[in-house]
Design goal:
- This protein has about 525 residues and is an alpha/beta fold.
- About 35% of the residues lie in helices and about 15% in strands.
- The protein has three domains: about 230 residues, 3-Layer(aba) Sandwich (D-Maltodextrin-Binding Protein, domain 2), CATH 3.40.190; about 180 residues, D-Maltodextrin-Binding Protein, domain 2; about 60 residues.
- Strands 1, 2, 3, 4, 5 and 12 form a six-stranded mixed sheet that branches.
- A hairpin with a 2-residue loop joins strand 8 and strand 9.
- The longest helix is centred in the last third of the chain and has 26 residues.
- The N terminus is likely disordered.
Length: about 525
C-alpha cells in the first residue's frame, strides 16, 4: 500500500526483456568527459509529463542556464509513460546521469548509493539555501534523520488543498437559498436541489450530492470522508497516513476509523442516501462516471454539490460553482470547531525533482547549474516559459503569464510541474487561470484553516516510517481496509443501521488486525522527526 509516501511513481514496470533492452540503450548515462568549446558536457535527464511539451532545447532559458553553469548541457527527455522501465534500467546499471530532474526520489537514494549528498554544498547553492530557509518543511521532507540530502524538492506556484466542497451557487440563487452552514441546513438545500428543478430543464435529472467511490486502497482524493472536517477532525486526503485511517491532534496520533466523529459522519451520509440525495451506486461507481456527472449535459448542470479541486471540474458549467465553507456537523458546535483539509503541503511540494550523480567529475559546474535552476526568474521560466516572450516580468517579484501559454491545449511550453525550482512567498503570478481559481476556492476556508496548527494537528509531510515499520504498517493496513471498507459502505449507504453491537464488533476487530499498532508506529516516528535538528 504505502499510500503515505510523497512520491509519484509514473507508469508500470514492463516485461523483463523490455527492461533489458532499455538497460542497453541507457548505458553511459553519466558524464563522458566530453568538452564543447572548452566547456564540459553535463548530461541532464528530465522526465516529461506529456508528449506535447515544447522540445526543451527550444526554451531560451536553457542558454542562460548553460552560461550560468559554464557548461554545455546534453539533454535526455524521457516521457512519463516510459519512465518506470527506464528508471529500473538506470538503477540496475548504476550509471546515473550527471543531473536528473523529476526522476529519482529519496527512497531511491536510500536504496541505491549513486547520488550525491548535497547537504555539505548548500552554501554553494544560495538559491537552494534560501528555498530551505523559507520552507523548512521542503528540506525536511527530503532529508533523513542524519540530515543527508540526496534529492532536492520543488515548490509549485500555488499551495493549498486540492480538495473543496464545490456547490452550485446558481442553483442556490435561483431557489432563494442561503449558503448552508450546518449539516441540517445542507440537507435541506440538497432536498430542494432534488425536488425544485434548479437547472430549469423540466427533467428530474438533478444529482443533489455526488460522491466518489470508496475504493479498496484507502481514503484518498475527493474521498467522502472529507466531511470529517465538519466534526473537527483534520483530514489530509492527498497523502500521509490519514488515507489509511490515521490522524493527529495536538501532537498525539490517533485513528479515526472507530471514532465518534466517524460514526457521526456515516450516520449523516446514511440519511442522505435514504432520502435519495446521493446516487444509490455512488460508492461503487467508476471514476469516469463520477467525472462525467460533474460536467453535466451540454445544456444543463446536473450536480449540486461535490468534492472537487475547483470549478473547472464542472466543465462548461464551471461558472455556476463556488467553494462552500466547511459546514458544522451540528448547530450547537462552535464555529472554531470546524476545520478543513490539511493537504496543502502535498500540493505545494514534490520530493523528487533533482538529484546529482555521486562524486561527479564536474561538481563545481553542476552546483552552479542547480543554483541557477532554483533562481526565482528561472523557476518562473522553467514552469511557464521564457521571459519576456511568454511571461512578463513586472518587477517587485510580480510576473504576468501570457494567454498564449494556455490558448493551445496541444502545446505545453517549458517544463511546467516537471521543473526543478521554487516560487518564493513574495512572488505573485497573474494570468494563470488555475491559480486564480485555486486562490478563490481557498479563500472560503481561511477561517477553518485558522482553527488548527499545521504539523501539530496534522501529520507533517516529512514524517515517514522506516522500511521495517512501513512493512508492518502495510501488512496491517491491507487487512484493516479489506475488512473495514465493505462494512463502512453498508453503514454509509444505510444498508446497515446497527451502530451498537455491530459497531463494537467492527472496532474490536480493527484493533485485532493492528489498528492501534499502526497508531503507535506513527507516533514513534512523529516523535523522532519532530525532535530532529539539522
Amino acid at each position: 500500500m504505502a499510500q503515505h509516501r510523497v512520491v509519484s511513481m509514473a507508469g508500470r514496470a514492463c516485461a523483463a526483456i523490455s527492461a533489458l533492452a532499455a538497460l542497453m540503450t541507457m548505458a553511459a548515462c553519466g558524464s563522458s568527459g566530453a568538452m564543447v568549446d572548452g566547456k564540459p558536457v553535463i548530461k541532464v535527464l528530465v522526465q516529461y509529463d506529456s508528449t506535447n511539451r515544447l522540445p526543451i532545447e527550444k526554451n531560451a532559458w536553457v542558454k542562460t542556464l548553460e552560461s550560468k553553469c559554464d557548461c554545455s548541457i546534453s539533454w535526455q527527455v524521457v516521457q512519463q509513460n516510459a519512465w518506470a522501465q527506464q528508471k529500473s534500467a538506470i538503477l540496475a546499471s548504476g550509471d546515473v546521469p550527471d543531473v536528473s530532474i523529476r526522476a529519482f526520489n529519496p527512497d531511491d537514494a536510500a536504496k541505491f548509493p549513486y547520488f550525491e549528498n548535497l547537504a555539505p554544498f548548500i552554501k554553494k547553492m544560495p538559491n537552494v539555501q534560501r528555498f530551505f530557509t523559507q520552507n523548512p518543511s521542503a528540506r525536511r521532507m527530503v532529508s533523513d534523520l542524519q540530515g543527508n540530502l540526496e534529492v532536492l524538492p520543488a515548490e509549485m506556484p500555488a499551495g493549498g488543498s486540492n480538495q473543496h466542497w464545490m456547490i452550485n451557487k446558481t442553483w442556490l440563487d435561483k431557489l432563494g437559498l442561503k449558503m448552508p452552514t450546518t449539516w441540517d441546513e445542507l440537507t435541506s438545500v440538497l432536498e430542494a436541489f432534488k425536488t425544485e428543478d434548479p437547472n430549469g430543464n423540466g427533467k428530474n435529472d438533478e444529482i443533489p450530492f455526488d460522491v466518489s467511490a470508496l475504493g479498496t486502497d484507502g481514503f484518498r482524493w475527493y474521498t467522502p470522508m472529507l466531511a470529517l472536517g465538519s466534526t473537527g477532525i483534520v483530514t489530509q486526503a492527498q497523502g500521509g497516513p490519514f488515507q489509511d485511517g490515521i490522524y493527529i491532534r495536538n501532537g498525539k496520533v490517533a485513528e479515526w476509523l472507530t471514532s465518534r466523529e466517524f460514526k457521526q459522519t456515516l450516520q449523516w451520509y446514511a440519511q442522505l442516501f435514504k432520502k435519495g440525495l446521493i446516487p444509490a451506486d455512488a460508492l461503487t461507481q467508476d471514476g469516469s462516471k463520477y467525472g462525467s456527472a460533474l460536467t453535466g449535459s451540454k445544456d444543463s448542470a446536473t450536480v449540486g454539490l461535490a468534492f472537487a479541486y475547483q470549478p473547472a471540474a464542472f466543465g462548461t458549467h464551471a461558472d455556476e460553482y463556488v467553494a462552500m465553507p466547511t459546514p458544522k456537523a451540528t448547530a450547537t458546535m462552535s464555529d472554531k470547531d470546524v476545520v478543513w483539509d490539511a493537504s496543502g503541503d502535498y500540493g505545494k511540494y514534490e520530493n523528487y525533482h533533482l538529484a546529482v550523480k555521486k562524486n561527479d567529475s564536474h561538481m563545481d559546474n553542476i552546483l552552479k547549474m542547480v543554483n541557477a535552476l532554483y533562481d526565482e526568474k528561472m523557476s518562473v521560466e522553467q514552469y511557464y516559459g521564457d521571459i519576456p516572450s511568454l511571461v512578463t516580468d513586472e518587477g517587485s517579484h510580480a510576473y504576468r503569464v501570457s494567454d498564449k501559454v494556455f490558448s493551445d491545449p496541444n502545446v505545453s511550453y517549458s517544463l511546467g510541474p516537471c521543473f526543478a525550482g521554487w516560487f518564493p512567498n513574495d512572488v505573485r503570478i497573474t494570468g494563470d487561470p488555475s491559480i486564480t481559481a485555486m486562490q478563490k476556492a481557498e479563500a472560503s476556508y481561511a477561517s477553518a484553516y485558522g482553527h488548527y496548527t499545521v504539523n501539530v494537528d496534522s501529520m507533517p509531510i516529512w514524517v515517514k516510517l522506516d522500511s521495517a515499520d512501513e512493512k508492518t504498517f502495510d501488512g496491517n493496513n491491507t487487512q484493516i481496509l479489506n475488512y473495514a471498507t465493505p462494512l463502512i459502505a453498508k453503514w454509509m449507504n444505510g444498508t446497515n443501521t446497527d451502530f451498537g453491537q455491530a459497531w463494537d464488533t467492527y472496532a474490536s476487530q480493527l484493533n485485532k488486525l493492528g489498528l492501534q499498532k499502526n497508531v503507535e508506529l506513527w507516533q514513534k516516528w512523529y516523535d523522532k522527526y519532530t525532535s530532529q535538528k539539522f
